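Illustration 12: AIM24 family protein.
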Amino acid sequence: MATFRLQGSKVLAVDMSGDAVKAKNGSMVAYDGQMAFKKMSGGGEGLRGMVTRRLTGEQMEVMEVKGQGTCYFADRASDITVLSLHGDKLWVEASNLLCADGGLRTGTSFTGLRGGASGNGLFTTTVEGTGQAAIMSHGPAVVLRVTPQYPLSVDPGAYVAHQGDLQQSFQSGVTFRTFIGEGGGEAFQIRFEGDGLVYVQPSERNTVGGDV
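Figure caption equivalent — predicted structure in token form:
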């Protein structure tokens, strides 16, 4: 299995000995040893995945990297977080996924109003199985723990990913004052309940909620 490690905060180093990983297309910045790069259709799920992604609009251009040596990945100087999956599932915005172990399964999941508010569409990417994955954020990602006693509300523009046994719901604070121009700019949040981890970035994307 490939080994993920950080080379600084903005470069991911993946050590491989004949292993394969899936990475964002064009994200290789250097490598040593012998590497082969192959563009994958539809995010690496074959025909079904390709059709699903075209229908949902969840775009993720992916390449398979296979070889022996170390391959380095980065994307627009984004900060990178390496996390491990142990048979569980990660939900992550496609634009925030940099690399995943080749043995992990990728798919799409309906996000409903949360996706619409975050400006990332109505579907998000899922990564499932056992292995490592690397996610990107604008600024160092903060990992926040959610427990049954302590639910968490997150700005859709700052949300990056989550994992664990979490249920999410969409909260709206739109009132009459919002419509007369006295809103506080925090009219929408995602509420997480259950047991798991939520990754947020210290920077907010432009969203519909941010304007009201």
